[in-house]
Protein 1
Amino acid sequence: MNLQELENSWIKEFQKPLIIAGPCSAESEMQMLETAERIRRSGANVPIFRAGIWKPRTKPNGFEGVGVIGLNWLKKVREEYGFKIATEVANAHHVEAALKADVDILWIGARSTVNPFTVQEIAEALKGTDKTVLVKNPVNPDLALWIGALERLVGQEVKNLGVIHRGFSTYQKTKYRNVPNWQIALDFKNQFPKIPLIVDPSHICGNRTGLAGIAQEALNVGYDGAMIETHCNPDEAWSDASQQITPEVLAALIKNLKLRNLDI
Ligand code: PEP
Ligand code: MN
């Protein structure tokens, strides 16, 4: 099997645009349940709830995630509010724990996609799974590395794949936290039109004001959905506070998004 032969039928289960929302990090059971409850109450069409429980932080001695206890909170979110649940995995132990908890969607973070040994380890731990695995672009603007990560997964018979465009690191001062470099994601899309492509405006923008514009720009060029960090109390978030939004703001943002009219 190769990347071109994947059916990626997992995405057909969802309406477009597919919205994945939830906090950057799981912090407490209460924070998770309140965020999930308010997303549901807002009426927004959000089928997948995300939360990082192992957090790759730039500097040491900060909050690095609550760890496996967060899996219980994710499962509670699924049971009580009917979301599918998603979390980041960065090594084989994470994969093992996430599969044991029957997490629906696993994603590989930008700092892991850059490292072929890490991706290989994750891929081997996932061998043959029918779970959906989403691969964020590497932090550096390297399309081959992004594709290589997918090839490593396919090499281990992981068949339900998608990618997340979260922008690329730069030392230049720009209005973005991670510059979108749209062309890289579009080159990916041209090469692999059947692999679902999801935008992550939160990590591209690094602020709240740019989110809607980036999400709309992505839908305009045919992306399948967006992953948007959403927190019950964004200002007090333990990670990525400046880019997270409340469930109510998320609902308004989604309401204003327009799907590309494919007939044009
Ligand atoms: C995240 O989704 O919270 C995260 C750490 O993202 P990235 O890997 O894109 O930096
Ligand atoms: Mn984050």
Protein 2
Amino acid sequence: MITPDPNRYDGRMPYRRCGNSGLKLPAISLGFWHNFGDVDDLDESRRIMHRAFDLGITHFDFANNYGPPPGSAERNCGQILKKDFHAHRDELIISSKAGYLMWDGPYGEWGSRKNLLSSLDQSLARLQLDYVDIFYSHRPDPDTPLEETMGALATAVQQGKTLYVGISNYPAAMAAEAIDILASLGVRCLIHQPRYNIFDRWIEDGLTDVLIEKGVGCIPFSPLAQGLLTGRYLEGIPTDSRAAKDHGFLQQEAVTQKIKAVKKLDEIARHRGQSLAHMALAWILRHPAVTSALIGASSVAQLEENVRCLDCLDFTGDELKAIDAAAAILS
Ligand code: NDP
């Protein structure tokens, strides 16, 4: 059992309403894609979870396949949740997802009712929870009728295995349709989880309009472009960084391609009196569609640094233009 900081809700972490729903999420949420698997230092993983909670981060985001190996992030953190956070379950919003490859055979991925509902049961067992707060369809499935995938999400709510549902990586038109199907089944689509950062702005091309119009929240993942939009790679590729690790999803070529832009963005951040990580997160949070920025952290120090972005969230028009120009620089 933990003894959390009694001042964790003192106002330093803002809680923002998720679309038109009744649920508020912290401006910064913590993701468990990397850093919590069997390959990681679980003592540090546990310290990150404790510190996050003390900092007012009430939302932890999982998926069935996070690790590596797949499933290990939920399993490792399930033990920590049970041991340390049991008394605080009602203060936490815990999410999981299904859709990417998880087990052998025709039902281990994508968007069938069979995959989603079986995967949710597996996630609940690994997390040692009776329910999650948000369950997502992790990616659109071109071969399964959208009615079936959304129907499975609605069933998960009716079964009491999730309180809310969301969609992830759905393009604008498909998201609009999915939100409407869920509404016709009497279930609100709470949230969309897309990739969004200074380098990857696809959601501005239609999706954010759909989410605002339909009152659905938005929680962008990889807001730091997996660490590129921090000081991590300014002097090369450190051996303990995501880009250097075999199981890391950040390609070294992406670092090489973007490093000139990163250096220019770092200059702009310094002029604002903040770090590049702070500026990248503030930039996400400036968008009216965005509820929360979903970060990753491989250490307590990174987590603490990232939360300090909340000290300076405003941008001038000139700063935004300079960021646009810097982001377009090719190395
Ligand atoms: P970020 O863009 O925040 O990248 C996090 C990584 O950047 C850290 O693990 C660390 O990497 C580095 N980093 C973070 N803060 C700092 C700092 N202050 N200084 C230096 N380096 C820093 O997010 P992620 O790509 O990790 O994604 C966040 C979450 O989004 C995931 O955990 C997951 O929950 C979700 N997600 C969802 C997806 C989906 O399809 N729905 C897909 C991908 C992610 P390092 O190891 O180098 O220290």
